[in-house]
Amino acid sequence: MDHGPIPLTAREAASGLFGSVSMTCWFFLLVPQLIENYRNGNAEAISLLFISVWLIGDIANLVGGLLAGLVPVIIAIAVYFCIADGVLIAQCVYYKVRNSRPEPFHRRRSSTETPDPTTPLLGRRFSDPLASSESRRRRSSGSLRHYHAGGRRESEVEDTLAKIVEESDYGRKAWVKNFTSVIGIFLIGTLGWTMAWQMGMWSPAPLDNKNGSEDAIGGQVLGYFSAVCYLGARLPQIYKNYSDKSCEGLSLLFFILSLLGNLTYGAGILCHSTEKEYFLTNLPWLIGSLGTMVEDVVIFIQFRIYAVQDPRLSAIS
Questions:
Q1: CA-CA distance, 258 to 252, in Å (whole number)?
Q2: Biased composition, Basic residues: where in the chain (predicted)?
Q3: Which bin fits 41, alpha (ψ -120 to 50), beta or left (φ > 0)?
C-alpha cells in the first residue's frame, strides 16, 4: 500500500532533515581518511588509540541506544560506525605490519645515492616504507632532499613538481574540494530525507519511551560511558599531532565531516523536542556529539599551525 507524505511541523521537518544530513556525514566520514592512508601507503598519522577508543564508544553507543529505545536512525548509524571503525583499524594494522617488514638488502637504497633519472615523479614520496617519522617531519616542513652537488638543483625542481602533482590540495584548491564535498553531503542528505518523506517511509519518532526502567537506566549508563569515550578518543590524536608537530597524513575532510555530523546530529535531537524527559534521555548523546566539536576545533587549529607550506613557494627559496 502506497502511503503519501505525512504532514509535518517545521520542527519535525528540521529534525528529519538534520538527522538525514548527519547520517550522510557518518556514512562518508571515514572514506577520506581511508583514501589518504591508501595514497600514502601508511597510516602513521592516525593514532590507533584514537580509533580504538572510538570503537569502544560506538559499541557502548549501540547497546545503550537499544536499551534506551532511541530512534532507528541512531541505531543504524551506530551499527554502521562499528563496522567502519573496524575497517579503519584493520587498515592501520595492515600498513603497520606490512611496513615493519625489512626489505631485502638489494632493494635498500642509500640516502646519498643519486636517484635514477628514469624514476617516475609519482610515487616517489612513499616509495620507501622504511622512511622514519623524522624524515616525514622534514618533508612536512617544506625541506627538499639534497643529492650530489652536480644534480642538486635538478632534484629540487623534480621533487617540487612531484609534490605539486601528488599533493595539489593546497590553498584555494583544498578549500574548493572540501567545500564541494560538504555541499554534496547536504544535497545527498536533503534529497534522501525528502524522498523518504514523500514516499511515506519516514515519520517523526514518538516522544514517549516504552522501555522498562531497568533498560532505560542501563541505556543511560552506557550512553554516558560512550560520551566519555568520544570525548577522550581525540586526546591521543591531538597529543600525537603536537608531538610530531605535523598533521601530514591526516585528512582534513575527515574532521570537517565529523564536526558537521556532530552539529547536525545534536540539532536534529533538539529540533525534535526540548521537553525535559526527552532531553534527559538524549543528554549523554548530546554531550558526546556536541562536546567533541570543541576537540575537532582544536585539531583544525593544529592543521593551521602545522600546515605544510606550498612546495611551489619553498622551491623559490
A1: 10
A2: 136-150
A3: left
Domain contains 174: yes
Same domain, 51 and 23: yes
Q: Residue 140: which domain range?
A: 112-165
User: CA distances (Å), 134 to each of 18, 91, 139, 156, in order?
Assistant: 43, 23, 9, 19
Whole-Å CA distances, 84 to 5, 54, 287, 289:
32, 11, 22, 18
Give 221-263 pLDDT, tens digit per residue: 888 888 899 899 999 999 999 999 999 999 999 999 999 999 9
Whether residues 35 and 55 share a domain: the answer is yes
Residue 48 and residue 147 in one domain:
no
216 closest CA partner among 68, 1, 111: 68
Question: If we measure between CA atoms, which residue out of 192, 257, 239, 191 comes closest to residue 26?
Answer: 257
CA distance 5 to 34: 38
The percent of the chain in helix, strand and coil, each rounded to the nearest 5, is 70, 0, 30
CA atoms within 13 A on the CB side of 30: 20
pLDDT (tens digit, 9 = 90+) per residue, 31-54? 999 999 999 999 999 999 999 999
Are 215 and 68 a contacting pair, CB within 8 Å? yes
Query: 77-111 as b/e, with b when 16 or more CB fall inside 10 Å?
Result: bbebbeebbeebbebbeebeeebeeeeeeeeeeee
Q: Which three cell numbers stand for residue 274?
A: 526540548
- Name the strand (E) or helix (H) holding 194: helix 171-198
177 domain-assigned: yes
Q: How far is Cα 14 from Cα 28, in angstroms, rounded to an integer?
A: 21
Examine the fold and report which residue of 165, 186, 209 is the final residue of a domain before the chain moves on: 165
Domain shared by 161 and 174, yes or no: no
